[in-house]
Specification:
This protein has six helices and six strands. By secondary structure, it is an alpha/beta fold.
Length: 314
């Protein structure tokens, strides 16, 4: 009964199933591991943010390049403030405002972007406090370069002179005449008249939409694996039923060919040719009478006619 499993058609089905199920399980497991990694990163970033508040600031050179393990840690740097820029479109405490960004030229020759604070309203260079003169030492939280269009960072272009939409070396390289670090620092304590900007978690370390997409893809891949198994058993069951019906002599009805008219008994009878001279005679109307009845009746009628004729008219 199961000999059909050795046919080329079923060989192809079986090979497909044997390859599809492990692939779906592998992809589902991989998506699940991605979700678990994001959960671990979120937990680590949260613990790092709590520990960074109490740990001592480390020199900038020890924390570069910035990655998930160093983003959010406190650092210190020394140098001279240079060019100042404004970063519009930044919200703080549900209010619109802008960052005041000043380039710190370090002793190493490169410039470090430093966010000295936040001001409410539209970006206005006249309202932004001037940076301190002379050599300064700054202490703040190290942050990775921003990516325009990601994590709420504006990708707006065509800003007025002295403004930038993102804090990154790629965005600042054409605005300042310095070599730049691929990182920036937000001060623990803002300069006078401004509000300190809180540090943000590193990218891909939170339970954001991407994390829940990984969880959704996990379910989809496992559902695909179950669907493949279900369809294989369904096809197998149908083939077994066909084989059993064939053994019992129960065969499916063959569909009638389209375009051929159905023949009926009446058409066959009407198609028979009649012998010449054997055409049916029309039935005679009226009742059949015995011999003599018709004569008697006519004789009586004749006598009455004669009697009427012989009666004189008065």
């Amino acid at each position: 009964m199961y000999r059909f499993l050795l046919t080329p058609r079923w060989w192809g089905i079986n090979v497909f199933v044997l390859l599809a199920i492990p692939f779906c399980v592998f992809m589902g497991s991989w998506q699940l591991s991605r979700f678990e990694a994001r959960v671990d990163d979120h937990r680590s970033a949260k613990e790092l943010a709590e520990s960074a508040r109490t740990e001592a600031a480390r020199p900038l050179a020890e924390l570069l390049p910035v990655d998930k393990s160093t983003s959010g840690r406190r650092t210190t740097a020394t140098g001279h403030y240079g060019k100042q820029l404004l970063v519009p479109g930044r919200r703080l405490d549900d209010r619109n405002g802008y960052y005041v960004l000043t380039l710190l030229r370090t002793d190493g020759g490169k410039a470090l972007p430093v966010v000295r604070g936040w001001l409410p309203g539209s970006a206005d260079s006249a309202k932004a406090p001037k940076p301190p003169a002379g050599q300064v030492s700054v202490t703040g939280t190290l942050q990775a370069s921003e990516t325009p269009g990601d994590n709420g960072v504006s990708a707006q272009g065509g800003l007025p002179a002295g403004q930038t939409s993102a804090i990154s070396a790629a965005s600042l390289v054409n605005l300042v005449p310095y070599d730049l670090y691929d990182a920036w620092v937000t001060l623990d304590t803002a300069d006078a008249g401004m509000t300190a900007v809180p540090a943000t978690a590193a990218s891909d370390t939170g339970l954001d939409l991407k994390a829940f997409q990984n969880l959704g893809y996990t379910g989809e891949w496992f559902v695909f694996a179950g669907f493949v198994v279900f369809m294989w058993f369904r096809l197998l069951r149908r083939e077994v039923e066909f084989a059993r019906d064939a053994e019992l002599g129960i065969l499916p009805d063959e569909p009638e060919e389209s375009g051929e008219p159905e023949e009926s008994g009446e058409s066959e009878e009407s198609g028979e040719s009649e012998e010449p001279g054997e055409s049916e005679e029309p039935e005679e109307s009226g009742e059949c009478r015995e011999p003599g009845e018709s004569g008697a009746g006519s004789g009586d009628r004749h006598g009455l006619d004669q009697e009427d004729a012989s009666t004189p008219v008065r």
